[in-house]
Design brief:
Structural class: alpha+beta
Number of helices: 3
Order of helices and strands: EEHEEEHEEH
Helix content: 10-25%
Largest sheet: 3 strands, antiparallel
Distance between the termini: 48 Å
Shape: rod-shaped
Oligomer: single chain
Number of strands: 7
Strand order of the largest sheet: 2-1-3
Strand content: 15-25%
Amino acid sequence: MPHRCTKCGKVYEDGDMRILNGCECGNNKFEYIPKERKERKEGEKIEIVRILSPGCYEINLENAFKKEGIIIALGEEGKYAIHLPSLLKRRKKT
């Protein structure tokens, strides 16, 4: 995992002693550079509800109907409401 000097920007590989002893420029503060994350393709996402922006959501109805899940709603002040008929319907099946 590489580290970058916060003063001069020089990059040092993981295990380099200069990370512990200090950069050639005299600075001893380094920034960790994370590995690149693999982004999922749009078709690989399995979520049912996706947050587009605060208060704006996209719902994948096809997946929601396939999973036969419990319906949960987000109410005021971060409270969740559970739709009891969907909960009871699921319980009867098992």
